[in-house]
Amino acid sequence: MNRWIQTYGAHYRALFSLGFPIVVGQLGVIILGFADTLMIGHHSTPELGAASFVNNMFNLCIIFSTGFSYGLTPVVGSLYGRGQLAEAGSALRASLVANTLVALLEMVVMAALYFNIERLGQPEELVPLIKPYYLVLLVSLLFVMLFNAFKQFTDGITDTRTAMWILLGGNALNIAGNYVLINGKLGLPELGLLGAGLSTLLSRVMMVVVFAAIVLRARRFRRYRVGLLRGPWPVTMFKRLNGLGWPVGLQMGMETASFSLSVIMVGWLGTVALASHQIMLTISQFTFMMYYGMGAAVAVRVSNFHGVGDRTNVRRVANAGFHLILAMAVVLTGIVFVCRYSVGGWFTENAEVSRWIPALFVPFLIYQFGDGLQITFANALRGVSDVRPMMFIAFVAYFVISLPAGYLFAFVLDWDLVGIWMAFPFGLTTAGILFWARFRRRTSLGR
Hints:
By secondary structure, the chain is an all-alpha fold.
């Protein structure tokens, strides 16, 4: 035990110190997801079903966007570890431009999907609710990407508290806006689901404005602003960020696709299935986002040690991160499992929806180990900038295994919505094992 503490004790403390603000920020996102689903679900079940479809489509974009922006973390983390602060600011400038271009590309793709919504087999009564909400979230994509650039920069220099406070403030604004706009308070019209979308857009704009003001004016960022605002355009850095960002974005995008594209199959089962799926996704975000907060800390710490060539501590950080995420999994899944029979009633008065929820907890509990494993070692691979193989691993795990398994279980074996969810443990565990094996090989060779 003493040897264990000597090996990992300092890493546990450092990861907790670095990761706690990220986890708190992610907790704010989780609370926002709960609040959105609660407010929309209690307003009407059809709106909850429409929100399920649209949110899943945009979650695919947002997770890809987050993954793309993660390319900045190992770059800034290595520069910070070597004391090259102006160069880190230059990396932020390149990231802001790269993220803007990716956001515009995503908006074009999602606009094309908008004009084909009727062809995706969703319940006809939901289409008039889906379309206006979809358009508002489409506009907000640009601000998601700009926020991600600032957040990954500050995380990379180990300043995780700034993003935490901005996220918490933005989420509080969003929840307040939901209450006013969904229900028509303070003399404003009752907008329902559209009001939730407008509130989301406003909060995302304000978070970017506040983050930019802090980075451009705060004294602690003065040395970084030299690279951010002056000097030649960082062509090499722009290419490097794209080289790192696209593989990570595609890996995370394919992971999310195993959930988000499944919503199309869920829609074939009807409005009640869509509403149930949205509630369970909201619950699953409770664990996933908190794991990913600690995973982000793993990526930062790994990149710091990788930048100075300390391969031993690179591996120890990854192992320590996995230990912490497993401990989180035991606590968090225990909490939600105890509440499994009452969860549905939190979000809707529809008894049929509530009856679906407890059965979905079985696959949810099964995939927690695989989810923690793939989050830890995907972030560890990001930290050592070994991101290209992650695309191929994700393709196999999520497109070759998870999505086909969901169709098999749901429609061939007639397990319905539970069958779609039973596919997730197969994809996530496969990805986790392959990421772990790749990280072991990469760090043992010391390349």
